[in-house]
Write a structure and sequence with these properties.
CATH architecture: 2-Layer Sandwich
CATH class: Alpha Beta
Structural class: mainly beta
Number of strands: 17
Strand content: 35-45%
Helix content: under 10%
Largest sheet: 6 strands, antiparallel
Strand order of the largest sheet: 3-8-1-9-16-17
Shape: globular
Distance between the termini: 23 Å
Oligomer: single chain
């Protein structure tokens, strides 16, 4: 089938672990799918629903580093009941990926126009992790029964892969109520495919469909396309 290969690059990327805000703010080894959908939405200039495309990705960085940053907090005014700025500032440590690259594989080739002329700048994590688009290409994604996958997330459990198991992550958020906070659309468990030099050998199945991108120089290169539909 036809698919879209898009590459994003940046100087830094950070994907904080959910519910972990004490001490050094650690980054996950790869972006959650809610962040990928956020990038698609930024480029499209609208909210891209999880049902619009299958998504596969590979994430690579040249290492990690620790940043020291000043934090600003809010507080509740006891008299008015409204939020106001807390004059007391803090200092925190934040881990981030150095010189990251995010390769996206999408089943919806019509999204090509979003990346040729993006409505807003994509970010690999937080708003200061600005990214630029270095590749937009329509490719053939050939089904394959086996291959090697690299630096990505796969549904947990997958007994072919011994990677890090991540906490429950939001696949997407629902933000259709004006003036209200967004809601989690669905939580899923994933495990990170180790950053092995030659990838991890896997076999496909009905629930684990593998594809080989035609523009890859590796004959055994495989990607898994996730279906995030509710």
């Amino acid at each position: 089938m036809k698919g879209l290969h898009v590459r994003l690059e940046a100087f830094s990327a950070s994907y904080p672990y959910p519910f972990l805000r004490s001490g050094t703010q650690l980054t996950m080894p790869a972006p959650p799918f809610s962040s990928v959908l956020g990038n698609l939405s930024a480029c499209a200039g609208r909210s891209v629903a999880p049902s619009e495309t299958l998504i596969g990705f590979e994430f690579h960085a040249h290492g990690k580093a620790i940043d020291l940053e000043r934090t600003r907090r809010l507080r509740m005014d006891s008299k008015t009941g409204k939020l106001s700025t807390n004059p007391e500032q803090g200092v925190g440590y934040r881990e981030f990926h150095v010189r990251p690259t995010l390769d996206l594989y999408l089943s919806e080739v019509s999204f090509e126009r979003f990346f040729d002329s993006p409505a807003a700048a994509p970010c690999l994590g937080r708003s200061q992790d600005l990214a630029w688009i270095t590749l937009v290409r329509v490719v053939d994604l050939a089904p394959t029964q086996s291959g090697r996958i690299r630096r990505t997330l796969v549904p947990f459990p997958n007994f072919q892969i011994g990677g890090q198991v991540l906490p429950p992550l939001a696949d997407y958020f629902v933000n259709d109520r004006l003036g209200s906070t967004r809601r989690i659309g669905r939580l899923s468990r994933y495990q990170y495919v180790p950053d092995a030099k030659d990838g991890v050998a896997v076999k496909g199945s009905d629930a684990f469909s593998l594809y080989h991108p035609e523009d890859s120089e590796l004959p055994d290169h495989a990607i898994f396309l996730h279906d995030l539909r509710p």
